[in-house]
Amino acid sequence: MNNDNVKGLVKKGLGTAESAFGNVTNDAYTEGKGEANKLAGSAQNVFGNVEDKVYNMADKLRGFANNASEDISNLSEKVNKEIHEKPVKSSIIALGIGFLLGALLIR
Predict the structure, then answer these.
(1) Three-class secondary structure of residue 62 per DSSP
(2) How far, in Å, CA of 44 to CA of 34, rounded?
(3) What is the DSSP string of 15-70?
(4) Does residue 17 carry a pLDDT above 90?
(5) Closest Cα partner for 35 from 10, 17, 9?
(6) Averaged pLDDT, 83-89
(7) Percentage above 70 pLDDT, the chain
(8) Contact 31, 23 (CB under 8 A)
(9) End-to-end CA distance of the chain, in Å?
(10) Could you tell me if residue 26 is left (phi over 0), alpha (psi between -120 and 50 degrees) or otherwise beta?
(11) How many C-beta atoms surround the C-beta of residue 76 within 10 A?
(12) Each residue of 35-84: pLDDT tens digit?
């Protein structure tokens, strides 16, 4: 629950009271103003809910990006280690990949 949720709930509650007061006193203007404040409070509360969902999604995306970055870093370290431990095998693999790419690009 964020600031907009609280403000929206308060505004909705005050609008309900204002509308009831207008109804009791037969004051259509006060009753209508209360209904408008109830609606505005509900809208602000919904906005707060959407805002919370967006922040939660952004946090999840940040976590996903951090995990992907760590995975890429780990893979890079493994490849680098493999190249240094087995340079001949790595060179042959690189030559084969280069040959295949060259053959595909010529067509």
Answers:
(1) helix
(2) 15
(3) HHHHHHHHHHTT-HHHHHHHHHHHHHHHHHHHHHHHHHHHHHHHHHHHHHHHHHHH
(4) yes
(5) 17
(6) 93
(7) 100
(8) yes
(9) 59
(10) left
(11) 10
(12) 999 999 999 999 999 999 999 999 999 999 999 999 999 999 999 999 99
Average pLDDT, the chain: 94
Q: What six digits make up the tokens of 61?
A: 């995306």
- In the block, tokens 């780990």 appear at 74
- List the structure tokens of 19: 């509308």
Instruction: For residue 93, report the phi and psi dihedrals to the nearest 5 degrees.
Output: -65, -45
Give the Cα separation of 51 and 4 in Å (integer): 9
Residue with tokens 């509900």: 42
Amino acid at 65: A
pLDDT reported for residue 7 = 93
Whose tokens are 């999840």? That residue is 60
pLDDT at 1: 86
- 4: tokens are 């907009």
